[in-house]
Amino acid sequence: MHNLDWFVLIFTLLLIVVYGTLKTSGAKNANEYIKAGNDAKWWTIGLSVMATQASAITFLSTPGQAYNDGLGFVQFYFGLPIAVVIVCTIFIPIYHKLKVYTAYEFLESRFDLKTRSLTAVLFLIQRSLSASITIFAPAIILSTVLGWDLITTNIIIGSLVIVYTVSGGTKAVNFTQKYQMGVILIGLVIVLFTIFNLLPNDIDFNKAIKIASANSKMEVLNFSFDLENRYTVWSGIIGGTFLMMSYFGTDQSQVQRYLSGKSLKEMQLGMIFNGIFKIPMQFFILFIGVMVFVFYQFNPSPLNFNPQGKIIISNSNYENEYKELEENLQKNFDERTYILNDILLKDKIEVKEKIDNLNHEEKNIRDRAKILIGKAAKDKNVKVETNDKDYVFINFILENLPKGLIGLLLAVIISAAMSSTSSEINALATTTSIDILKRNFSYVNDDNIVYFTKLMTLFWGLCAIALACVAYLADNLIQLVNIIGSIFYGNVLGIFLIAFFLKVLKSNAVFIGAIITQIIIIIAWFYDWMPFLWLNVFGCVMVILISFLIHLILKGFKAS
After folding, report:
1. Exposure of 296 by Cβ count < 10 A (0-12 exposed, 13-18 middle, 19+ buried)?
2. Nearest-angstrom CA–CA distance, 347 and 232
3. Confidence of residue 475 (pLDDT cuts 50, 70, 90)
4. How far apart are CA 396 and CA 300, in angstroms?
5. How many CB atoms lie within 10 A of CB 202?
6. b/e map 512-531, b = 16+ CB within 10 Å
7. What pLDDT was estimated at residue 271?
8. Torsion angle of the four alpha carbons 161, 167, 168, 169, in this order, in degrees rounded to the nearest 10
């Protein structure tokens, strides 16, 4: 990177960390540290909620997702507005009335301590795993750019987050997230205009859209009921509603954001703000990925976007075969370039068929390259990620953006990682202190709760760094995070819905039902019974049905 990029990157990150630490340190009690003194305005809550979701994974994986599969991923968020309405009308009023610090406090008043503790533990498991991934994602970037090992970069990123989160608690998280979202939005707008500027002079917006459409990248809606397809309108509306309802209504990393609100109205307006702007923002990020695809229709792309792949294949037994694949990819590109005018000037079926054939051929070439890289890595006894979806956007940034803008975009991605990670370890610390330590150990009380929460923030921050050091890339990072959530969210949501609406079900039945359900969900995920979004619906329904069954069994025992 150029010195200017280094300056922009370091200055942006240090300004956020230092300024946030200085402005928010000095909390004197639990309310100030955990709930930010309950003085947050609706727009602060809304931006904080969005920043919590907008991790580095969003800006690494989502453009890569769109590059490969088009805009269809946006269907994943179709359930969000429905979920937001439900959370605003049911969850938030109850939490506000009870003046809880965590969502799980409510469950003890409805059921008992063991049910509260169980849901808190389930949250700690899934959120600690997610926190490690939000650190690992930008570590990939810096390790690629700087040649650092992943462990070093994990430690650097995690440490930056720990500094201001331990110091200022929820207020620090809310405060810094406002500026992080500002950096993110400015950076995204600039990069989109830059992409259009890099396209040939005769390619305007309409022509770019036409090229993307010819390659099936602009297809947003899929109304099929095919369970093999992860992203459809129905999976987004039904499965997405359950996932988002659990995320915003029961996940402490989000609940803690709006519990800092000045009033019930401010909390609700903050969530509505998120519900209105989240889908357009996600669509915008996906659209950037599609435009990156259009850019590579006019410019050669690497055979594998992970630069480590080319290094691994060098001086291996597969180097010549890999070079042949590169030549085949170049031929594919030349043929694609040849028919671009046909795409722009004609609207014939045969043109679409040619494009489909070329895309299929390109996919086969890239898949064979991944296999060769994997074999070379095995022979050299080194680890390398052959799946390069998450490297598409960063590769484009490093190879094509002008000086200064590279540093800004890296700052965008790392700021997003910091915003999500800070929310996660803040929530993990709060849940551990309030739901586990304070509730079960007498030495943790109101007088020293701030000290223990800070200690737990440090603990979970270090845990996230440690787990990040052993993380790996799945099919796609953003999918991995959502899969982890879906394994736990449905079960937890079902417990809360029982608490709200099914008064006949008591603590023992729900507790046993929740444990059985969680085991079934893990089995369902392991054996791939259904797309992960449907696990949220399945888990929610299962815990209700099993709890009813246990209730009837226990009632029968009492009667006999």
Report:
1. middle
2. 27
3. very low
4. 11
5. 7
6. bbbebbbebbeebbeeeebb
7. 92
8. 70
